[in-house]
Amino acid sequence: MTVASVLLALLGSTWLLAVIEGWMTTGRLSPAAPLFSGLAHLGRESILPRSPDRVFFEAAPVLLLVVGVLGMAVLPLAPDLIIADLGTGALFINAALAYVLVAVIMAGWGPDGAYAMIGGWRFLGQLIAYSMLIVMPITAVAMRAESLLNTAIVGSQAGLWNIVYQPLGFVLFFIAAMALAFRAPFDLPTAEGELGGGVDAEYTGVRLAVLRLARLTLVVTLASATTVFYLGGWHGPLLPPWAWSLVKTLAVAVSMLLVGHYLPRIREADLMRWCWILGIPLALVNIIVVGLLILVVP
Amino acid sequence: MSFDSAINITGARQKRPSVLQKLVSRALARNLGCLIVPGPEIALAHGLDVTAAGMRTSTTPRDASVLMIVGELSEKMGDAVAVLYAQMPRPRAILIVGGQTPSTLPGADISAGLSQKGLTEAVVRLQRAFADGAFVASPEAFDADVLHAKIEYVCPMHPEIVEDEPGSCPKCGMDLVAREAGESTPDHDHEHQHHGHKHDHEHEHEHCHDQDHKGHHEHHHGHDHEHSNEHQQEHAHENAAAEYTCPMHPEIVRDEPGSCPKCGMDLVAREDAEDEGASEEGSGHGHNHQHSESDHHSEHEHSGHDHGEHDHGGHKHGGHDHGASGFMSMIEVTKDLPRSADGLQMDWLEVPFGPVFPGLPGGLKLTLTLDGDGVTEGQATSLAGMTIEVEEGEESEEIDVETFIDHLATAMPLAPVSYRLLACLAIEQAAGLNDDQATTQARNGGLERERIASHLGWLAQLGRQLGFAWLTQRASTLQLQVREANRYRLAELEPALRTLGTRLGRTPLLKSRLKDIGELSSEFSDLRGPLARAASEGGDAWARLWQRLAEITASLDLIKASSEPALPSLRDIGDLSGTGEVTVDTPRGEARLSLKLERGKVKSYKLDTPCSHHIDLVPKLVEGQELGDALLAVGSLDLSPWEVIS
Asked: Which sequence ranges are marked TM in the entry (chain A) (predicted)?
């Protein structure tokens, strides 16, 4: 039951996100558009490139989808609405998301094409930039909760959400999450204007449908993680807890799309430079500040 | 079910539709992705709004159901379009808007006139056809000559073995590897270059930094056993007889490939009489096992996925060379390779970008030699450019003046008004007509309006290149509105046009993205138009952005001060003869036209356009840049491939 509810919530959020994405690109708000888009993909040929690495090519979209779902499995929608409340939940998210890199590199390698290949390797560079900014803010969040249980992390925010308690951590995590989901302006691996679609470029038909679904699912999962870590999870007045979780998750996901809509793609070298020179010291400052707050404020 | 007899979408498999298939067909119809050839900027310049017509703009052929060809295509573009069409998933349709079907394609499914109305009607018909599932099985699979590259199979060890089908080598039993026919057997060094490409960064890195690379042969006899071995392996290529040995257990020697009975590793080929042939280099035979092993692994990596980019990127090279090279050492493989800016030696790939590429103007083909994500050299060619048949002094047919003007205007779809004006002015000057104040004002208004529209088109293209969706949407919308606006409408649009600059100035990341990209100082002599004017302001892509934004507002002011913008039309010139030479400041810079008029007909003409000069700047701009920066630098030139004259 719990599994079904969480998966349904994930699917529903992904669908809503797809509707909003379609609205932003075409200017038409059509609730059925994602459905038709998915069906249309089924009607198209799913072309296999001339000399693919079959295993990598086929596995990459599925792996990316699995990563998104796995991440969602340890995130609570309500106190008792969580698939697996792992004792190492906050760490598990991080471990699951590491496979995004694997999936993207596989998608880059698999089709045997220059654009995809460069896209895949670009993401490896991107990982070096964002990965510390995923882990370090989570550390500060876990410090406050004194637990890696994701339910305990939400519980620790009952009085004050982490976005207020540690705003710096929120900003860093939000940016790193967007880089991890390789959405604009961090879409270096897919970069249409530079690589003609990059790692997405060779996928068609069913495989493309899975890939697109996986990419949106990943955004929802990351938005849900942001909600759990910083926006007080299910806490909120009037509405039932699960509704609050979903509303906040969608708000974060939509804001991720919006940011990308209004920004040009970042240069890879700049991303790396800013993440390491600015991001990591700031993340350390965040940890120190949170540590002091924990000591000073009982 | 009723078929629209007019449209049968070719290239689809014929099926008797079930309920699900009907549903899928409906979905397809609602979701027509459209790949615009030569590019979306051409559609916009013609005033075509694909989104408003009901299609989605796709950036790649893989994501498109409709190939939309706008205007006439050159022969070279026709070949490129055939390749794109072949990449599109079926069912797929061809929509021709205002032109002919290129001979390389099977024929238009739907043709439409070059207007938004024509396009919208055509899209409705296409949608109906898709929804009805009006697909015919094409009599034969789409096949164009350009797609053909005969594949032949060769043995990596025995270059004399060439077969038409895959199989194994009759001499050594190794799997034959594919290569494109017509290529000469690559010499080994060449092959190794390709072979040793970038899969083994770390390994390579380590060596490059530890050792003086120039002298490593001399310095490292002591421990570089794999070098000598490497040489042996290379010789093995030439000699027919080979035997197989385990990299870990040199005592295991077999006549055919297989795995080592001790450790199970794949045996690798080596020369038969290795010990006899041992030269000074080869004398140090006590293998450093550690090295051998790692080399073996790297070799495995290669044979496992020695593929990729070459094929797709049009980078043809000979064969895959499985297993033949045994203890491939990265030092050996990369020692003759050129060094990148970051000190790594890697294989260089030649990758084509364009002529239909989301980040570049359609019709422009950029061939970049990539070294990882960096560009070592690049070359730009225009596949759409006009060729001038009528050269000065040549015996040629006389052209009617009106035909001449139309010809010039349609040949330059990104700046038709400017070139129409250029032709009119030159003819009038040749005929000795004096300037007429009112006509000049109206014509200048038209020219300035086109400048605004053209710069907006460039901004939309910049947005496409940068993945900056807001800019693309905003600039395209404005461009469509400005294109045929009168003074009143332009005054209405003025606030929106002026705030565009303010918005861009406030956009984070934009400056860091454009600053110092594609620097062109005023030392370059061939700069014209916005490029020349921006050269004094820093001359980078950022300066060019602001130069164009400034020109948009300046043009608005000019239109306000003059009369109603009008399309230039030729005044009555009679049957006069004479010569004329005029210059017009087109949106991309000064274009010069000189022509000879005889009895009211154009006898000969000579055209000089800014883009013919600007395209030569590309190699300098891209060299040593990161891929994204290089493309941005090329994009910031605002090249119109049509205005490149060969």
From this structure: 55-78, 90-111, 123-143, 163-182, 242-263, 275-297
